[in-house]
Design goal:
The structure holds 2 protein chains of 2 kinds. Chain A is an alpha/beta fold. Chain A has one domain: Rossmann fold (3-Layer(aba) Sandwich), CATH 3.40.50. Helices cover about 40% and strands about 20% of the residues of chain A. Chain A has helices at about 45-55, 75-80, 100-110, 115-125, 145-155, 175-190, 200-205, 225-230, 230-235, 245-255, 265-279; strands at about 5-15, 25-30, 35-40, 60-65, 70, 85, 160-165, 195-200, 210-215, 215-220. In chain A, strand 4 (about 60-65) and strand 5 form a beta hairpin. Chain B has 2 domains: about 35-55 and about 75-235, Rossmann fold (3-Layer(aba) Sandwich), CATH 3.40.50; about 250-289, no CATH class. The N and C termini of chain B lie far apart (about 50 Å). Chain B is α/β, with parallel strands linked by helices. Chain B has 11 helices and 10 strands. Classes of the chains: A alpha/beta, B alpha/beta. Chains A and B meet through helix 6, helix 10 and helix 11 of A and helix 6, helix 10 and helix 11 of B.
């Protein structure tokens, strides 16, 4: 089996002056090119994990390995160059006066020569389909456009992994779709590993694999199909099921013998049609 | 309180080269006691519309009538104080507006400014903290030690402390997890009924608009594109899609079923329960079309 790009082994973390663990004995891995979603309610520990992955927080116990190397003071800078984090609030991550300056910021910090910077900015802005906005001031962009610029800033550093920390939760439906579409394309075409931290199970349904967090611990792990079979267990820990799953369970309660294990509206319609035409 | 917009126009930076028309020809009436959802794409004018409801913005032409008060381009902000008491606005991320040392002081800030005696304001704070689903011992704590969801509830209690007759909610559940979202929407619905409020909800969630609102106002490019019951508004999904809006998931399912089955489903299918019942009836009829 291929070496995992990320592996977390028995990691625990407590915030200062807190007796309860925010993250407790968590282990999982991610393969190169995989889209992994970590889902859980607010306060389940999922953002704490993201912060540990780029060395903003240090685990109390356990080990984090990225690209085959242990994360520590000596490796953290390399990790931050190779892993990009997109935060929740699009307004909290701009430093440049224009889109172009903003993307240039991290490149300057990494000592990239000017000619190469110009080239990388052009390439990054194209990948997020924001070329016409290169000289815009960030505050004139919509939320979805701002998040795409944040992603371009990461792409300019040629990352191996992108972490989305609730990156779509403050966007309107169109903005959310824009951002997810961009990330999906990068994931498929460039095999950038994606770790999306979210409480939106419609977003999580797009992942290859899901990890469900509850009260700091991993509650379940599997493909979207396997996870959504947990049904009301997910609702009990404050998550919402995809629409077709919720609808399906209500129809079963009313005596319509639907099978379990689909999660798009189209699949539900086909399933209902099959049952209906057999009558 | 009845709210009426008459030929309202709003131009930002009027009489300057940066002038931008955000609203035009807005004619709409919201009856007292109604729960109205305002939907529209980002940039459609819904935030500008909302800011006219308590005089934060004045129309550059036309008039906004709120109860007995009329706001026109001439009406001075000084005369708007009574209106601000009657119309409570919960802005997006209201927790960012908290500033006092304790939760109690934060909730009392508004009433004290409007001349309510201190013991009366404190009594109200105790009542409101429970109404928004927090316990009384939160009152002595710093609002900044609370979780995001708790902070938001404190900020909402601060708005309710002025006993508004109209409650305006701008994306009140943005950033909350699914359970927090549902609890908050149920709380507003309960307040709407118990306090007989007129509620204006600005939202991107077509599900919430379908579930809670009596009427929906659809904004598009600065003016009212449509106004009706959820059933009327969600009848034409294609027209909504053309202006970048969608219908609730339940309505999408209904339309796909109608197409696949070659039938007409009479129910508006606005909630999960309503839709489940409509599908059950479809199956109970038995015969294939």
């Amino acid at each position: 089996m291929a070496e995992p790009i990320l592996s977390i082994e028995g990691v625990s973390f407590r915030y200062p002056n807190q007796s309860d663990y925010a993250v407790q004995n968590v282990s999982f891995t991610a393969e190169r090119g995989e889209w992994l979603a970590i889902v859980g309610h607010n306060g389940s520990g999922k953002s704490t994990i993201a912060r540990m992955l780029i060395g903003l927080l240090r685990p109390e116990r356990g080990a984090i390995r990225l690209f085959g190397r242990l994360l520590n003071d000596a490796t953290v800078w390399e990790v931050r160059r190779r892993v990009g984090l997109v935060f929740q609030n699009p307004d909290n991550q701009f430093v440049g006066a224009t889109v172009e300056d903003d993307i240039a910021f991290a490149l300057e910090n990494n000592g990239i020569p000017r000619l190469e910077m110009v080239e990388r900015i052009r390439e990054a802005i194209r990948q997020v389909h924001m070329e016409p906005f290169l000289h815009y001031e960030p505050h004139r962009l919509s939320g979805g456009q701002k998040q795409r610029v944040a992603i371009a800033g990461i792409l300019a550093l040629r990352p191996d992994m992108i972490i989305l920390d609730e990156a779509t939760s403050m966007l309107d439906p169109r903005g959310r779709e824009e951002v997810l579409e961009t990330v999906r394309r990068l994931n498929r075409q460039q095999r950038i590993t994606v770790l999306s931290i979210t409480h939106d199970l419609e977003e999580a349904a797009k992942a290859d694999r899901l990890i469900v967090m509850n009260k700091g611990e991993v509650m379940a792990e599997g493909t979207p199909e396997q996870i959504f079979r947990l049904g009301s267990k997910l609702e009990r820990i404050g998550l919402d099921l995809p629409f077709a799953v919720k609808m399906g369970s209500r129809l079963r309660e009313r005596g319509i013998p639907l099978r379990i294990g689909y999660f798009t509206t189209e699949e539900l319609v086909e399933e209902l049609w099959t049952l209906y035409s057999k009558k | 309180m009845d709210i009426v917009f008459e030929k309202v126009e709003h131009v930002y930076n009027a009489r300057s080269p940066l002038a931008r028309r955000a609203l035009y020809d807005v004619n709409v009436a919201i009856r007292s006691g109604a729960y109205v959802a305002v939907v529209g794409h980002t940039g459609s004018g819904k935030s500008t519309l909302l800011q006219h409801l308590n005089g934060l913005l004045q129309p550059t032409s036309g008039a906004v009538k709120i109860g007995e008060e009329t706001i026109t381009s001439h009406k001075r902000p000084k005369q708007l104080k009574p209106l601000r008491k009657k119309v409570g606005v919960v802005f997006q991320f209201p927790e960012h507006q908290l500033f006092e040392e304790t939760v109690e002081k934060d909730i009392c800030f508004g009433p004290l400014n409007f001349g309510v005696p201190e013991d009366e304001a404190k009594r109200k704070a105790r009542e409101l903290i429970k109404l928004v689903g927090l316990s009384e011992d939160v009152l002595v704590r710093s609002p900044f030690d609370l979780s995001g969801g708790q902070m938001r509830r404190v900020a909402i209690a601060g708005v309710l402390a002025l006993e508004p007759e109209v409650l305006v909610l701008d994306e009140p559940t943005a950033g909350l997890d699914p359970r927090g979202r549902k609890e908050m929407m149920e709380m507003f619905y309960r307040l709407h009924r118990e306090k007989q409020l007129t509620t204006v909800l600005v939202t991107h969630s077509m599900e919430d608009a379908a579930r809670y609102a009596d009427e929906i106002i659809v904004m598009h490019e600065g003016t009212v594109w449509g106004h009706g019951t959820p059933e009327e508004i969600f009848r034409d999904a294609d027209k909504l899609a053309a202006i970048g809006l969608s219908v609730p998931e339940t309505v999408k399912l209904k339309q796909q079923l109608e197409k696949r089955f070659g039938v007409v489903i009479p129910s508006p299918c606005l909630t999960l329960e309503q839709t489940a019942e409509a599908i059950q009836q479809l199956f109970a009829k038995g015969e294939r079309p």
